[in-house]
Amino acid sequence: MQVIRFEDSNYDKKLKKAFSRKYSANEKLKGSVEDIIESVRSGGDKAVRTLTKKFDKVDIKVEQFELSRKEISSSSRATTNEVKQAIKLSNDNVTSFALSSMRKDWSTRNSQGVLVGEVFQPFNSVGIYVPGGSAPLVSTSLMTVAIAKAVNVPNIVVCTPPGPNGMICPELVYALKQSGATSIFRVGGAQAIAAMSIGTKTINKVDKVFGPGNSFVVEAKRQLFGDVSVDLLPGPSEVFVLADSSGKASWIASDLLAQAEHGGDSNVAFVTTSSKLLDEVAKELKTQSKQLSRQFQVKEVLKKGTNLVLVKSINEGVRLANEFAPEHLSLVVRNPNKIIPKITTSGAIFVGPYSAVAIGDFLAGPSHTLPTGGAGKSFSGLTADMFQRRTSVIDVSKNALKKSSKAVDVFSRIEGLDAHGKSVSIRNCD
Question: Domains in the chain, ordered, with CATH?
């Protein structure tokens, strides 16, 4: 881990280097994903099977891509009541939050008396990718599928990688079914994104693709934008904790390590006005990390993706937070409500010492699919309205037509589009 103090002679230079994140795909990765997409585009289901065998080391027949009713039903029997209760709690919270945040139809009259407004309708079909890998992300199924269900998307297609035996974690299957998935496919990686985006005989083309994934998945979404709409291009996990002297070192360290255990290029930052607290957090990170199960992942992030920063003031910390634009921002300060209005780029803000980021990750209600890599400066996290199409509605009365005609005539003459003007004036003649 790197410790940076405002007294350092090269403070600004160190900060710039520490907080720079570039997650763009290299040429080799781009080429590999392009080949995968073209294989699926030309070979359909057969190509998906071949790619699954190559990357997931399991041969699954095309007719076995989709989980059967029997398999889905058996997942319930294999899931304990304790897990079911946790899934229900999260599902209820996510659904409630989504219903509260949905955009509603509206209308008003403009100055000419034209009735204008918008209507919001769910996409007909969405594809959702749920990572499997070393940790089946049961929570991700809830933070994506449950939102689609709340918005009343009729066709919710889910792809998730198969395990070594060709099976999917029963708890994940149960969560997918409970949250509203209409079809579940044991297909992972870039080939899954391609199948949902392009369509095969077995996996129908969807209107929009959602969900996080590894570098291959993210790059596939990037390349297939145009064939299909996509939600976000989420990268490695991030947390930024801003604290004053009121912070408790052990709690702060545990939040940092919770994101560090994702491994890879995950980035954790602790920024504080207290030199004493900074030293205590550094000590706690070393102590607590030795007790965790994902030692390799944690050590990797602590070595190359952890920065502890001492700043002169909380306002300087706020400036750094806005510049970093973290996926998760934790505010451990005495007066957080004074700070929140100043935060302009974070994916999600966790307020106060008791707001462990993990509660947001698993069950608070807002989706944990959030912008990373600085994308929070221009993107928001996954929300209900991303599953909706918006359509504008314009209703012109005879009187409103008359009030609008003069301005339309002016625009049509300026732009040399006389047919536009005629289409309005002709109505005034009748």
Answer: 2-20+235-364 (3.40.50.1980), 27-230 (3.40.50.1980), 397-429 (no CATH)
